[in-house]
Each structure stands twice: as C-alpha cells, then as structure tokens.
Amino acid sequence: MLDLALYAQRGSFKLEVECRFASDWTVIFGPSGAGKTTLLRLLAGLDRNAPGNSRFEMALARVVLDGRILTNTDQGVWRGPGRRRTSLVAQQPSLFPHLSVDANVAYGLGNLDRAIRASRVAEMLELVDATDLENRSPQDLSGGQAQRVALARALAPGPRLLLLDEPFSALDGTASDALVDRLHLWLRTNGVQTVLATHDATDAFSTGAEVALLREGRLTALGPAAEVLQDERERIALRLMTP
Amino acid sequence: MDWQALALSLRLATVTTAILLAVAVPLAALLVLGRGRWLAAIEALAALPLVLPPTVLGFFLLVLLGPRTAVGRGITALLGHPLAFSFDGLVVGSVIYSLPFAVQPLVAGFAAVEPSLVDAARLLGAGSARIVLSILIPLARRSLVAAAVLSFLHTVGEFGVVLMLGGDIPGATRTLSIVLYNQVENFDYAAANRTATILLGLSMAALAILYSKREKRGSAGGRRA
C-alpha cells in the first residue's frame, strides 16, 4: 500500500498528485512529458529540494509505504534514496561501466557474507535470464541485456517498492512478455509492490493491473486497466482494423 | 650540482602531493555532490592561490605562522619550533599554494561522471564515501593522475612562497628553484643552466607521460561506453 501526495514545481511544469496505490502492480500511464519520471524519482527519494540549488520548488511531499513514512516535508522527514527499501530502474540502465555484471548486481548487497552475496546475485541473474552474462562488462551488453541486468541489480537488495520507468523499452516483444510474466510472479511471491511508468498502452494491458492516468502532472483517472484504458483500447483496436 | 636541494625539492613535492590528494579528493567530491550556496565560496577559496601572487601568500603565511599571531604561537608551543623557516612550514605553504592544481582536475573529472550513475549508487544504499571510492575515483582516475602530476610539478617549481616562508636554509628550505636563483645572482650561468635544465626536464618528462597515457586511452575508445 503506497500513499502519496506530491505537489512540486519546476519552471512551468507543475506536479500535483495525491492518491493511494493499493494494488501490488500499478501502471502510471501517460504521454511523454506528463511527469512520470519526475513522480518516480520523487518516490525514490531523489531530487530533494535544497536551498540554493533546488531542482524543484517542493510545496508538499508525502510518501508512505505500508504505514512507514518515507517522505513528509511537513514533519521534515526525507529518507534518503537507499534508505527507503525502494529501487528504481530508469529508462537508461546506468550500469557501472567499470564493474562486471555480477559486481553491478552485488553493489547493493553491502556487507553480506560472500557466499550469500554470490547466491543472491545468481538468483537475480537467473530471474532476468542473464546467467550467462555474469562475467561480462557492461560495454559488451546489448540494450536489452543491460536493462535486464539493471533490473537484477535493483531487485538484489530486496526492496519493498520497485519503481520501473519505461524499463522494457529496450526489450523485444516476446522476450519482454516472458520476462514480465516471470517478474510479476516473483514480485508477488516476494511481496514487492511495483509502480511502472509507461507511455505504451500495451505495457499497461499486458500486466492487467491498476492503472493511473497521468496528464500534465495531474492524475486524471485511477482504476482497473480495462476501465481506465477504455479509450486507449478502442483507439488501438480502431487503428488495427483500419487498413 | 646541488643534490641536497634536488632531494629536498622532490621530498617536498612528494609529501605535498600526498597531503593534497587526501585533502582535494573529499573537497572536490563535496563541490560536485554537495548542494548549497556556500559551496561557491569554498570553490572560490580553493581557486584563490591560482591568481594570488605567491609572495602575497608567502607573506600572509609567514605572519600567520610567526610569533605575532596566536596561531603561530600555538603551533610553536605544540611543535617546539616555529613553522616558518622549516621544512614543515614549506609543506603547509606548498599545500595551500598547489591546492587548485589538485582540486580543479578532480572537480572536472568527478563532474564528468554521469549523474545517473551516482543516482544508481545512492539508490543501492551507497553513502557519499562509497560513491567517491567505488564510482567517482575509478571513473575519473585520469583526473586523479593529472591532479597528482600537476601538484607535484607545481610544488617542485614553486619559488615565491618558498622564499618568503622558508628563506634559504640548506637541507631544510633550500629547494632547487632557490638554488637556481642564487646561481643567477652569483653570475654562475653554467651551474644555473644545469639546474634549470633539470627542472625543465622533470616537468617535460612528467607531462609527456601524463599526456601519452591519455592518448592511449583515447584511442582505445574512451573510458566509457
């Protein structure tokens, strides 16, 4: 259960979102520039407002995950990224270029015992179907492979909340579907709530989850995919039928 | 050839470079990763020795470290001797004088590291120290080498601060550049030529090594994909 209230401004862009994501898989659907990335970064604890060098004018930010306050600007609470059991996989995989794939995945595992780290890394790479990439350098990976490794790296520390920002854009259709199905099951089994941002309606349908419609920084609808994306579905169907 | 002065210059440059890297790495990381208006003031202060005449810096340090100020008297009481006109005093002066030559390449190198990599490390729970050691330094290692080489060479060649703060005490504060000055003053141009050639050769060799390494890395396709 994720409760959030975010009122922030950057230049002429305003983000005004207040809602509760109750489903274990929520899709934030909206066109480019709607504020999806901004929203996810604030949920992750990045882009904190600081006097003198503010990226945002933060009017109010409140993020509560399963009853635990992650951000509350009214109370002066802002848990840093990495201290809120929240992982973010951005559009760009941002793998550490000087570390091998397995070292990338192990980065967030801190001071765990070496054997436990190794088995956790192996488990994560298997989940994203990247076991054979273990010793490779990020430079030698394709876009899709890098994206899968980034996913494994984000999941390794055992987050309670997983934020995905257009993460499947680099994967081809079939690989993406298989991965999403496997991931979905794993996340549910491990009790990880997921928020996925996308501008691709098929991503939203394929997961059949709760969908939040975001337009120009505002939430315009929140509910089951079939309801919220009715218009999108008709638009796609129409396009497919039109010769 | 004044081998004692050469050894002293190299020792001074080595000690200064080691201290400078220990100071400049966290300072540069603070300037790149930190936020706040006061950082601009710190950056300006760290760049000040670049434009300040060395004799001015040397004079202020001479007064500050001498018996006229509480700081100078405190240090004298602590060490048993004043810092001015000693090797330790030269180290203090050199560290301040060469600070921008260590800080500026590091700031440029750290700032060139993709911010998304720093974000990724933060999200994975890394604190500032770990980000510096595991991300910034490995990805900006060329800048670290450049900072070390420039600090070393700049210290070997410094003259104004050394003369003001250290005077000309053989074995303690008489560096190679002071020797050169003395030789010219005594019209011993042959000796001055040798001393100057050593200083020139040292600088050229170090810079050639620095830039040839850069050339090799560049032709290998850059440091990042």
Describe this structure in words.
The complex is a heterodimer of chains A (243) and B (225). Chain A has 243 residues and is α/β, with parallel strands linked by helices. Chain A has a domain at 1-84 and 190-243: P-loop containing nucleotide triphosphate hydrolases (Rossmann fold), CATH 3.40.50.300. Chain A is built from eight helices and eleven strands. In chain A, strands 7-8-9-3-10-11 form a six-stranded mixed beta sheet, with helices on both faces. In chain A, a hairpin with a 4-residue loop joins strand 5 and strand 6 (77-78). In chain A, helix 3 (114-127) crosses helix 4 (143-155). Chain B has a single domain (3-215), classed as MetI-like fold. Chain B is built from eleven helices and no strands. In chain B, helix 6 packs antiparallel against helix 7 (128-139). The interface between A and B is medium-sized, with 28 and 22 residues.
Sum this structure up briefly.
Chain A is of the alpha/beta class and 243 residues long.
Q: What percent of residues of chain B adopt helix (DSSP H or I)?
A: over 70%
Greatest chain-chain contact = A-B, 28 and 22 residues
CATH topology of chain B: MetI-like fold
Task: Kindly report the average pLDDT value of chain A.
Answer: 87
Q: What's the level 1 CATH class of chain B?
A: Mainly Alpha
Annotation keywords:
heterodimer, A: Rossmann fold, six-stranded mixed beta sheet, globular, B: mainly alpha, MetI-like fold, 11 helices
SSE order and pairing:
The complex is a heterodimer of chains A (243) and B (225).
Chain A: E1 2-10, E2 13-21, E3 25-29, H1 36-44, E4 57-65, E5 68-72, E6 77-78, E7 86-89, H2 101-106, H3 114-127, H4 143-155, E8 161-165, H5 173-189, E9 193-198, H6 201-207, E10 210-215, E11 218-224, H7 225-228, H8 230-241
Parallel strand pairs in A: 3-9, 3-10, 7-8, 8-9
Antiparallel strand pairs in A: 1-2, 1-4, 4-5, 5-6, 10-11
Chain B: H1 3-33, H2 38-51, H3 54-65, H4 70-79, H5 87-111, H6 115-123, H7 128-139, H8 141-157, H9 160-166, H10 176-185, H11 189-219
Helix pairs in contact in B: 1-5, 1-7, 1-8, 2-5, 3-9, 5-8, 5-9, 6-7, 8-11, 10-11
